[in-house]
């Protein structure tokens, strides 16, 4: 790899474009590295401390069962990690703007799995459910206490992880889109570990006569219904938190922030209290179906509202590339705008060209990441990114 | 917070003097202290509030607690219901769960779930699971005795000992539902409540014309 050099063609081409790029890199945090080990940052110590609490609590919880139900618990763990990995791959795939560094994502998942579940939620949920049962009776609590507890306790536990990540990576975590993506990863960790907990608890069903079958059954059931759960709730809540707090890249929007936080809590409530809201039987599935639809509609709205900020960053970061002719303005439009993308694909001559159009969009995003990582300097990666764009352009234009 | 203590290349950067407190970056304090505060409320304050509120759900004359789909027992009047549903309540028809009451220093607990076997086999299974999952000291003392409910269902009953306390354990299998009945407390309280406990065990019955 050659050493980075000052941009030659780009820097001289247009000082305004270079200034736009520099400003976008400064504000967006694109290309920033994440370092978890930050002894001078109090968030680092709080993160470590609460992870330690979560680990200790989870070990205390599972240790007595491990000897007797070791096989069933092991199978549950493998299944839940496998299901989590499928989700992980999908969430990494949709994280197409400022791709979150992998160590930041790992920290998010770890918080959701360990600190948020056993550090926070297990203790406070037990207490809250007990309080509701004492105040309103067992029957009421059975129908409504979960929905009156988990949206507040679990969402705040997950949000705490997101806030610590904001404190640990203030230049990386600063847009609503960051809230959506990291919130989803925190939720993924929470969901995977919660699924495991349910499966591990099921080993004692029917007086422990068939632990493996019960654990496997619950693992698959949780996975089947889990696609809507925690990643979706916390994506909405964490995105709302970014609007509420306001950052260098995202001006404060209190009403919008409150709406997204409330939406995450509400969908969590309807999901957890589907039994109470829908009665028994088909009504429960109707409530769950409506919650799923509402959740995905809200998530789509949240992504759409977050997109213009990210689009502008890409345009500014690639401004010198457009000026220098490495990327054409219409290609950039097609990479960012759905309508322009559809028009470009429609105009492409043949199937191979249409496919190349799609890949061209991805290559332009790759180039944006390469440029951001190089901080606008000339590097081998940037050269490679440009060459890839040129190659795909030539395929897309072949008749 | 407008900056981090690492550069974009990951190199260490000293915390600016005006942001330093005991070597820490003061700009990280708001997030960290907020999270620490939420943690304390969630794991210290709320459980404390739970502890301050007493159970106030005494068994009233005529109450029956559900112990599976179509089964119930008659709890002792005046004892506190800790968990479980009264017959007729919306959630009383669950096929698995538990009913727990306490009174006179004794805890009386019925756990119910599907079971395919005899009461003796259920008792053996319970002993195996309990001693294998967290209470290695759990042992059943002596030979089991037969216990018959007033409805005519036959189960087994036996004393048990454990580092966590001694008590009685009984097992029934009625219409495919296994019932694990435990009663425990200090020896003096157990002796004083022996008749009440026996009456509750033998009150297990099928609920007529009801799902619960």
Q: What's the arrangement of secondary structure elements?
A:
The complex is a heterodimer of chains A (399) and B (212).
Chain A: H1 9-13, H2 15-28, H3 42-94, H4 102-136, H5 138-168, H6 176-202, H7 205-208, H8 211-225, H9 230-245, H10 254-272, H11 274-278, H12 282-317, H13 319-324, H14 329-336, H15 338-347, H16 351-373, H17 380-397
Helix pairs in contact in A: 2-12, 3-4, 3-5, 3-6, 3-8, 4-5, 4-6, 5-6, 5-9, 5-10, 6-8, 6-9, 9-10, 9-12, 10-12, 14-15, 14-16, 15-16, 16-17
Chain B: E1 20-21, E2 24-25, H1 29-52, E3 65-66, E4 71-73, E5 80-83, E6 97-103, E7 106-114, H2 119-132, E8 139-148, E9 154-161, E10 167-174, E11 177-185, H3 187-192, H4 194-201, E12 205-206
Antiparallel strand pairs in B: 1-2, 3-4, 4-12, 5-6, 6-7, 7-11, 8-9, 9-10, 10-11
CATH fold node name of the largest domain in chain B: Protein Transport Mog1p, Chain A
Structural class of chain A: mainly alpha
CATH architecture of the largest domain in chain B: 3-Layer(aba) Sandwich
Tell me the domain tally of chain B. 2
Helix and strand element order of chain A: HHHHHHHHHHHHHHHHH
Q: What's the tally of helices of chain B?
A: 4
Poorly predicted sequence stretches spanning 5 or more consecutive residues of chain A: none
Shape of chain B: elongated
Count of beta strands of chain B:
12
Question: How much helix is in the residues of chain A?
Answer: over 70%
- CATH homology superfamily name of the largest domain in chain B: Mog1/PsbP, alpha/beta/alpha sandwich
Major beta-sheet overview of chain B: 7 strands, antiparallel
SS element count, helices of chain A: 17
Q: What is the N-to-C order of secondary-structure elements of chain B (H for helix, E for strand)?
A: EEHEEEEEHEEEEHHE
Radius of gyration of chain B: 26 Å
State the separation between the terminal residues of chain A, measured CA to CA: 36 Å
Provide the CATH top-level class of the largest domain in chain B: Alpha Beta
């Amino acid at each position: 790899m050659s050493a980075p050099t000052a941009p030659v063609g780009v820097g001289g081409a247009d000082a305004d474009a270079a200034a736009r790029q520099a400003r976008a890199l400064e504000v967006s945090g694109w290309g920033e590295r994440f370092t978890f080990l930050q002894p001078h940052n109090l968030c680092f110590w709080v993160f470590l401390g609460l992870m330690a609490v979560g680990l200790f609590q989870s070990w205390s919880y599972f240790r007595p069962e491990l000897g007797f139900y070791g096989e069933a618990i092991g199978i549950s763990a493998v299944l839940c990690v496998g299901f989590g990995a499928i989700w992980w791959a999908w969430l990494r795939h949709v994280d197409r703007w400022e791709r979150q560094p992998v160590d930041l994502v790992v920290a998010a998942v770890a918080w959701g799995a360990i600190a948020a579940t056993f550090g926070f939620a297990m203790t406070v949920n037990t207490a809250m459910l007990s309080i509701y049962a004492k105040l309103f009776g067992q029957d009421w609590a059975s129908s409504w206490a979960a929905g009156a507890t988990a949206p507040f306790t679990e969402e705040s536990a997950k949000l705490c992880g997101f806030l610590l990540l904001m404190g640990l990576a203030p230049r990386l975590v600063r847009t609503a889109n960051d809230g959506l993506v990291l919130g989803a990863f925190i939720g993924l960790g929470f969901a995977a570990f919660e699924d495991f907990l349910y499966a591990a608890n099921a080993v004692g069903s029917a007086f422990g006569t068939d632990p493996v079958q019960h654990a496997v059954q619950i693992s698959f059931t949780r996975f089947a219904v889990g696609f809507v759960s925690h990643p979706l709730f916390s994506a909405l809540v964490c995105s709302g938190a970014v609007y509420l707090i306001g950052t260098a890249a995202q001006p404060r929007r209190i009403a919008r922030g409150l709406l997204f936080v409330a939406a995450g809590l509400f969908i969590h409530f309807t999901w957890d209290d589907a039994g109470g809201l829908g009665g028994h039987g088909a009504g429960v599935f109707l409530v769950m179906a409506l919650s799923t639809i509402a959740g995905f509609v809200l998530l789509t709205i949240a992504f759409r509202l977050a997109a213009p900020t990210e689009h502008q960053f890409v345009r500014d970061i690639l401004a010198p590339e457009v000026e220098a002719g490495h990327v054409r303005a219409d290609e950039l439009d097609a990479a960012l705008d759905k309508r322009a993308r559809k028009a470009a694909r429609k105009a492409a001559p043949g199937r191979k060209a249409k496919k190349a159009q799609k890949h061209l969009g991805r290559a332009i995003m790759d180039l944006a990441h390469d440029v951001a990582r190089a901080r606008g300097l000339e590097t081998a990666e940037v050269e490679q990114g440009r060459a890839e764009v040129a190659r795909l352009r030539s395929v897309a234009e072949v008749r | 917070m407008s900056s981090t203590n690492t550069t974009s290349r990951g190199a260490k950067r000293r915390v600016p003097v005006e942001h330093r407190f005991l070597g820490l970056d003061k700009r990280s304090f708001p997030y960290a202290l907020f999270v620490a505060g939420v943690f304390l409320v969630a794991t210290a304050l709320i459980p404390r509030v739970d502890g301050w509120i007493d159970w106030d759900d005494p068994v009233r004359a005529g109450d029956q607690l559900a112990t599976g789909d179509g089964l119930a027992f008659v709890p002792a009047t005046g004892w506190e219901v800790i968990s479980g549903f009264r017959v007729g309540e919306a959630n009383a028809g669950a096929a698995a769960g538990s009913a727990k009451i306490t009174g006179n220093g004794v805890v009386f607990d019925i756990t119910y779930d599907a079971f395919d076997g005899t009461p003796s086999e259920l008792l053996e299974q319970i002993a195996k699971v309990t001693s294998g999952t967290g209470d290695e000291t759990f042992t059943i003392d002596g030979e089991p005795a037969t216990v018959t409910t007033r409805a005519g269902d036959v189960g087994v009953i036996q004393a048990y000992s454990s580092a966590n306390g001694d008590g009685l354990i009984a097992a029934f299998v009625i219409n495919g539902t296994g019932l694990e009945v435990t009663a425990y407390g200090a020896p003096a309280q157990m002796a004083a409540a022996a008749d009440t406990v026996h009456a509750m065990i033998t009150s297990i019955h099928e609920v007529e014309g009801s799902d619960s």
